[in-house]
Amino acid sequence: MSRDTRILIVACLTGHGMTLPEIASELGVSKETVRRDLQNAPAPEPPPVAADAVPDNALVLPLDEPLSEALRVLRSVHNGPDTAAQNVAAVRAAVRATADAVIDARTPHPART
Fold first, then answer.
1. Is there a single domain that holds both residue 96 and residue 60?
2. pLDDT-derived band of residue 86, with 50, 70 and 90 as boundaries?
3. Above 80 in pLDDT, residue 87?
4. pLDDT at position 97, please?
5. How far is 84 from 63, CA to CA, in rounded Å?
6. CA distance 14 to 43
7. Maximum Cα interatomic distance, the chain, rounded to a whole number of Å
8. Same-domain check for residues 55 and 100
9. Which of 12, 33, 42, 102 could form a disulfide with 29 if both were Cys (CB 3.0 to 4.6 A apart)?
10. What is the mean pLDDT of residues 41-54?
11. SS3 of 38, please?
């Protein structure tokens, strides 16, 4: 099997509670190889949110790296800390600003002479 495939398998088996020695034995590799594979494994996917656990008026997004980077940029405008409340405030401000720009672009303006 390829190294990339093994890394994904090691991450999956670890997520299911297997120990490094158990994984090493199962895959026929050393514990050191399993340890290195875990260091190179992609971050685990966030668990899915049950549809009935989220109110109808809520928006839930997985906090992946692109979204985290966008939030860092938005927070930097106000020098805000990396907190859930600050992230919500940054997203609300960005969505409102975007919506205002779209509304303004769609609103007819009288010609200026």
1. yes
2. confident
3. no
4. 78
5. 11
6. 12
7. 81
8. yes
9. 33
10. 67
11. helix
Q: What are the Cα distances from residue 73, in Å, to 35, 79, 89?
A: 34, 10, 13
Q: Is residue 7 part of a domain?
A: yes
For residues 29 and 110, give the distance between their C-alpha atoms in angstroms, rounded to a whole number: 73
What is d(CA 94, CA 11) in angstroms, rounded to the nearest whole number? 36
Considering its fold, how many domains does the chain have in total? Answer: 2
In this prediction the pTM is 0.43
The three-state secondary structure class of 55 is: coil
CA atoms of 75 and 94, how far apart (whole Å): 10
Which residue, chain included where needed, has tokens 């090691």? 10
Mean pLDDT over 55-80 rounds to 75
Give the long-range contacts of residues 35-44, CB within 8 A, separation 24 or more: 37/3, 37/6, 37/7, 37/10, 37/11, 38/10, 38/11, 38/14, 40/7, 41/7, 41/8, 41/10, 41/11, 41/14, 42/8, 42/11, 44/11, 44/15
Q: Quick check: is 69 in a domain?
A: yes
Fill in the amino acid letter for 30: S
83 secondary structure, DSSP code: -
